[in-house]
Amino acid sequence: xxxxxxxxxxxxxxxxxxxxxxxxxxxxxxxxxxxxxxxxxxxxxxxxxxxxxxxxxxxxxxxxxxxxxxxxxxxxxxxxxxxxxxxxxxxxxxxxxxxxxxxxxxxxxxxxxxxxxxxxxxxxxxxxxxxxxxxxxxxxxxxxxxxxxxxxxxxxxxxxxxxxxxxxxxxxxxxxxxxxxxxxxxxxxxxxxxxxxxxxxxx
Length: 203
Prior knowledge:
Layout: E1 3-7, H1 14-22, E2 27-30, H2 31-38, H3 44-53, H4 66-75, H5 77-101, E3 107-110, E4 125-130, H6 133-144, H7 148-157, H8 161-167, E5 170-173, H9 178-202
Parallel strand pairs: 1-3, 1-4, 2-3, 4-5
Helix pairs in contact: 2-5, 4-5, 6-7
């Protein structure tokens, strides 16, 4: 399967871009969605969390108390490391399984931490959705109703704009209007269809 990795900093418009590809019938494997479901009730990840912290890690309905866990790993770096060691392999397995099951002409792997978590190794091409830091700040503050400091902290924790652009095979500039964005996606869709055909014919 021909895999296009899509990434971009917070507020860059990654989801808008992947939705446009989806309208062309392309399957999207979303690392964020997978990461959220890893902690679902009845799963091995949640069992491991309860084993380590007891029932205080749970809400009354038996689901993960995300706020409690966030607070915990914020204050204890060793807990953050433990959680990453637990969840990253499970997330990766799920990503691989979904990529293999994809039935579209090519498949998109959407991941905010595509570069940081070395998921680029799973991709034939890397597409970066790029905006300025000022745009990131403005859009995220409006969307999530959070302070500039909070957004800035997230931006600082992600790969830098330079690192992302260095890893990119293709770049979508998302500072313009919807028509401009749609046209960039259409051009890349045609390109990826051609590249996917080439890959199939050589295998």
